[in-house]
Design a protein that fits this description.
The complex is a heterodimer of chains A (377) and B (276). Chain A is α/β, with parallel strands linked by helices and 377 residues long. Chain A contains 13 helices and 15 strands. In chain A, the strands form three sheets. Chain A has a seven-stranded mixed β-sheet with strand order 3-2-4-5-7-6-13, with helices on both faces. In chain A, strands 10-12-11-14-15 form a five-stranded mixed β-sheet, sandwiched between helices. In chain A, strands 1-8 form a two-stranded antiparallel ribbon. With 276 residues, chain B is α/β, with parallel strands linked by helices. Helices cover 37% and strands 18% of the residues of chain B. An eight-stranded mixed β-sheet of chain B has the order 2-1-3-4-8-7-10-9, sandwiched between helices. In chain B, strands 5-6 form a two-stranded antiparallel sheet. In chain B, α6 links the parallel β7 and β8 (194-199). Chain B is globular and about 75 Å long. Classes of the chains: A alpha/beta (377), B alpha/beta (276).
């Protein structure tokens, strides 16, 4: 059997993967460099009976996907820098009301309009802390077109499993470069759909934790009637200011990710076993890093690559382990220091640590990484 | 026999948060009577709101209810209606929520002519936050943020809705309780985006700052200023200054958004089938 292949952009791979994952509703607002995702889904969703809507602004796009998700659809929105800033309000709503949704952020530099067509990785911390208040976060940063496909499907699965928003962080290079991808056959990749209620409509509570930390979600418009609010709420979905209920709900929402970190985290390690120096890098930068690691090995430097595919939750246990066995970690990223602080937090001084930032709209080259590694050693 | 509201009120959720004299309760009862009259299935009805006093209404009524973020009701509702076009979707909220922070969503929902009924309770003030002026506070009126009188001009919500493309636009007041039912029923039955503006009283945050001695006085004013649209048609513009024109102000038939999109899907799938 010949497999279906194509030479496509990262953004296109993302859009096709959404359809594969069962996405039937996309709302968006045009913004460079993410617009191809909306363009492909405007074309593809009606073919499978799905809906595409271009909303009046970025906030409305988030609102529409949350509404559609409440009605039982798998949903997605895609944006970049300034658009992501606007969406933070309702990403918070999706967190507190526990609405599954996938948001793609094709990162650009900033703040504000920044450099719309230049690559950047400067929303690492926004993906974690962009919306106000304590909340859990899942963010995935793929590094190739094939991986964008697989990780987009996984993003939907995680959103549906943990009943929360999941962000896909891409830089402009992985989003716009064209690579060959092999389309998975239907059924080849696992597809997860949110847990339906176990109880009758009369007994149903939208935040019922008697079955665990992730309450089943009924589709509105079916037989289950309930209330949703952005206020702190009791298990029945209605607002509460009762101290013990608010505290329990807030902690449970963080626990959804913390307790399942091992199942959510995904890393790639390349030659880390005996490495005296490890380059910790994600997205397109990790591909420069891999080239740097190979070059350094040829020169006799025992270099390795640690690539977090899931940035949030940060793979803290594994990074702490590898840090104990190496002399130094170098963190190249297209920002002026974001993920490096997370590395610093978990490494706790057990090895040397160096940051390599670049924000001029050009990618970090292997040679910059090689120089930095030599400087550190 | 008296109307039985209990069928539609969630047990244990009353008393509501509204102040004595607030008209939101009158609107809620009108909404319930209208839904009953339309014989809507509770499971197939959604009531969506933003933030503010009026936006607390969905918590009290036994439907699918979503208390969204400030100003975002129309955008959430658009997603829900498009996701499930058979669902009856109603938005409720206040003036600040609907046409200030939510103004962009409001006009674009009008433009799409998506089949949602938006009940906008206009009490001329931000009540929940303590009485700041809204786009509907009368010019020279007093609010906590207009201590010297309001320098801003006022939004005419009905004109805004008509200009933006809403295909059913009506207005009444909380005094005209039976007209509330009638207009909401007509709004629900109309295929397209329906706006029902209900002039409402906020004695706590608006009335006491603007020399109304009681809520009765505020309601009396609504009664006296109201001119039915049929009567207004025969009056000179200068005689209508300061009056509240009530009734169905605008009604037209235009393609509804979800139906248009369904046709698009059909067309795309037919083309795909033809290609084999």
């Amino acid at each position: 059997m010949t497999r279906k292949t194509a030479l496509i952009q990262g953004n296109e791979a993302c859009a096709h993967a959404a359809v594969y994952a069962g996405c039937t509703f996309f709302a968006g607002y045009p913004i460079t460099p993410s617009s191809e995702i909306a363009e492909v889904l405007a074309k593809e969703l009606p073919k499978v009976g799905g809906k595409f809507i271009q909303m009046e602004d970025e906030i409305a796009a988030m609102a529409a996907i949350i509404g559609a998700s409440l009605c039982g659809h798998k949903v997605m929105d895609a944006s970049s820098g300034p658009g992501m800033s606007l969406k933070q309000e309702l990403i918070g709503y999706a967190c507190i009301a526990e609405i599954p949704c996938v948001i793609v952020n094709v990162m650009r530099g900033g703040p504000s309009t920044g450099m719309p067509t230049g690559p950047s990785q400067s929303d690492v911390m926004q993906a974690r802390w962009g919306t106000h208040g304590d909340h859990a976060a899942i963010a995935i940063a793929p590094a190739s077109c094939q991986e964008i496909f697989a990780e987009t499907v996984r993003a939907f699965n995680l959103a549906e499993t943990y009943r929360m928003p999941v962000q896909i962080l891409m830089d402009e290079i992985v989003a716009h470069m064209r690579e060959k991808i092999v389309f998975p056959e239907p059924g080849e990749l696992a597809i997860v759909t949110r847990q339906a209620p176990f109880v009758s409509p009369a007994e149903y509570k939208p935040f019922d934790t008697s079955f665990g930390d992730i309450p089943p979600l009924a589709a509105m418009g079916g037989n289950y009637r309930y209330h949703v609010t952005g206020l702190n709420k009791a298990p029945d979905g209605f607002p509460t200011t009762k101290a013990e209920l608010v505290d329990a709900e807030e902690r449970r929402q963080l626990r959804k990710v913390e307790a399942h970190a091992a199942a959510i985290e995904k890393n790639e390690e390349y030659l880390t076993e005996d490495a005296e120096v490890i380059v910790l890098s994600f997205g397109i930068t990790s591909r420069s890093a891999r080239f740097a690691v190979d070059s350094l090995r040829q020169e006799g430097v025992r270099a390795g690559l640690f690539r977090p595919i899931t940035l949030w939750p940060f793979p803290e246990k594994r990074v702490a382990e590898v840090a104990r066995k190496t002399r130094a970690i170098v963190v190249p990223e297209m920002n002026l220091g974001q993920l490096v602080y997370e590395v610093e937090r978990v490494v706790k001084g057990s090895c040397r640590l160096a940051a390599l930032g670049r924000v001029d709209g050009e990618p970090i080259t292997p040679y910059q990484i090689i120089d930095k590694v030599k400087e550190v050693l | 026999m008296a109307f039985n509201y209990e069928k539609y009120i969630r047990p244990g959720k009353l008393p509501h948060i509204w102040c004595p004299g607030c008209g939101h309760g009158i609107v809620m009862k009108g909404l319930i009577r209208a839904i009953d009259k339309c014989a809507l299935n509770k499971n197939r009805t959604a009531v969506i709101s933003g933030i503010g006093c009026a936006s607390r209404l969905p918590g009290y009524v036994d439907f699918n209810t979503v208390h969204t973020a400030h100003g975002r009701a129309a955008a959430f509702a658009t997603g829900m209606k498009m996701a499930d076009p058979g669902l009856t979707v109603l938005c409720v909220g206040g003036d600040g929520d609907g046409v200030a922070i939510g103004g962009n969503h409001f006009i674009h929902a009008c433009r799409r002519n998506i089949d949602i009924t938006y009940i906008l309770m206009n009490n001329h003030i931000y009540g929940m936050t303590g009485g700041q002026f809204s786009p509907c506070t009368p010019t020279d009126g007093f609010a906590s943020t207009t201590p010297y009188g309001n320098p801003d001009p006022v939004f005419d919500i009905a004109k805004l809705a008509i200009g933006a493309g809403a295909t059913f636009v009506a207005r009444t007041t909380a005094y005209h309780a039976t007209q509330i039912d009638k207009l909401i029923i007509e709004g629900i039955q109309h295929k397209g985006f329906s706006v029902i503006e209900i002039l409402d009283c906020c004695p706590t945050s608006y009335g006491r700052r603007n020399k109304y001695r009681s809520v009765v006085e505020m309601m009396k004013q609504h009664k006296e200023l109201a001119v039915p649209v049929t009567a207004a048609a025969k009056m000179a513009p200068e005689d209508l200054a300061g009056k509240i024109i009530t009734g169905v102000l605008h009604k037209e038939d235009k393609p509804e958004y979800c139906e248009q999109y369904s046709r698009l899907i059909e067309k795309v799938q037919e083309q795909a089938a033809a290609k084999g």
